[in-house]
């Protein structure tokens, strides 16, 4: 059981750090603003996405959050990451530039699988 806890918290912590870094960049970086423009998104979308990512990270990390809200956070992150991958490809970015989204998705799925493993114990 200890091994599963380490895997869960490592995957969840890494993913949450990644999402917080993205949210911070969306709020402060001119490069992130240019990327949203490159994708064809309106300027306010990056602000909404940053707020949603921060809320999702809080939902995943705090143990007092009900399981149903954690499920919604996992679902929202899955949709966001897959949409990011598609946005990269559709805007003409190369496949290697788009692969970071798939890495994030793999880390998220590891966290999700381990989360359900703990819930069943």
Describe this protein's structure:
The chain is an all-alpha fold and 121 residues long. It has one domain (2-120). The protein has helices spanning 2-28, 30-39, 43-61, 67-90, 95-120.
Name the descriptors:
121 residues, mainly alpha, 5 helices, globular, membrane, DoxX-like family protein, transmembrane helix, transmembrane
| Helix residue percentage | over 70%
Number of strands: 0
In angstroms, what separates the terminal alpha carbons? Answer: 9 Å
Number of helical segments with 4 or more residues: 5
In total, the number of domains comes to 1
Low-confidence stretches: none
Rounded to the nearest angstrom, the radius of gyration is 15 Å
> What is the structural class?
mainly alpha
Mean pLDDT: 93
Label the overall shape: globular
Strand content: under 5%
Order of helices and strands: HHHHH
Kindly summarize this structure in a few lines.
It is a multi-pass membrane protein. This protein is mostly helical.
List the topology elements.
Elements: H1 2-28, H2 30-39, H3 43-61, H4 67-90, H5 95-120
Helix pairs in contact: 1-2, 1-3, 1-5, 3-4, 4-5
Transmembrane segments: 7-27, 47-65, 72-89, 95-115
Membrane topology: Multi-pass membrane protein
Subcellular location: Membrane
């Amino acid at each position: 059981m200890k091994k599963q806890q380490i895997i869960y918290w490592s995957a969840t912590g890494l993913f949450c750090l990644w999402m917080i870094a993205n949210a911070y960049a969306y709020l402060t970086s001119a490069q992130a603003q240019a990327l949203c423009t490159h994708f064809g998104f309106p300027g306010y979308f990056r602000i909404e996405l940053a707020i949603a990512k921060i809320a999702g990270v809080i939902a995943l990390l705090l143990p007092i959050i009900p399981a149903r809200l954690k499920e919604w956070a996992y679902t929202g992150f899955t949709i966001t990451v897959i949409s990011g991958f598609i946005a990269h490809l559709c805007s003409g970015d190369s496949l290697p530039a788009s692969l970071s989204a798939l890495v994030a998705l793999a880390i998220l799925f590891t966290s999700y699988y381990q989360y359900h493993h703990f819930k069943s114990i």
